[in-house]
């Protein structure tokens, strides 16, 4: 059985970053669940802070530098995606949006995606449903039901009888993404890309 590929995109700006920490925790939850299903997974983390200049260059020139092209290729070829952003002005960060602006609208079609965000206060948690879900719906990705928001006070908190703690939410979201990834044959992402490319060629013909 082929090894699955998981890519986690972190848009954290600082180092160390709570956004990167959340991405790592989510990736580990997915890896652990897949291990219980006897599936091996290769995990790659894309740090957008390291690609800020290449992203800007791509936006103004239309051509991705090699490091950015490699990151986009890894994401579009992955069997599953974790996307984590800090909250800026009640939405995803500009760096996060700029990166996904460079992705072909068909590149993530049908790909399982886990969305997550970090912020200083729990009142920004609606960013998951008001900003991130619509973005990935537009990209026609398959977003798992559980999205994870981590406020500053969530780190180290275990929750209460009414609210799940952050570790429980991470485990539940990781289980959902692992289930969708395990249900897809490894390498299917590449086949999806070829289909999407063919559909794009047909669309070009129709509009000529």
Automatic annotation (TrEMBL):
<keyword id="KW-0288">FMN</keyword>
<dbReference type="InterPro" id="IPR005025">
    <property type="entry name" value="FMN_Rdtase-like_dom"/>
</dbReference>
<feature type="domain" description="NADPH-dependent FMN reductase-like">
    <location>
        <begin position="5"/>
        <end position="155"/>
    </location>
</feature>
<keyword id="KW-0285">Flavoprotein</keyword>
<keyword id="KW-0560">Oxidoreductase</keyword>
<dbReference type="InterPro" id="IPR051814">
    <property type="entry name" value="NAD(P)H-dep_FMN_reductase"/>
</dbReference>
<dbReference type="InterPro" id="IPR023932">
    <property type="entry name" value="CE1759_FMN_reduct"/>
</dbReference>
<dbReference type="Pfam" id="PF03358">
    <property type="entry name" value="FMN_red"/>
</dbReference>
<dbReference type="InterPro" id="IPR029039">
    <property type="entry name" value="Flavoprotein-like_sf"/>
</dbReference>
<protein>
    <submittedName>
        <fullName>FMN reductase</fullName>
    </submittedName>
</protein>
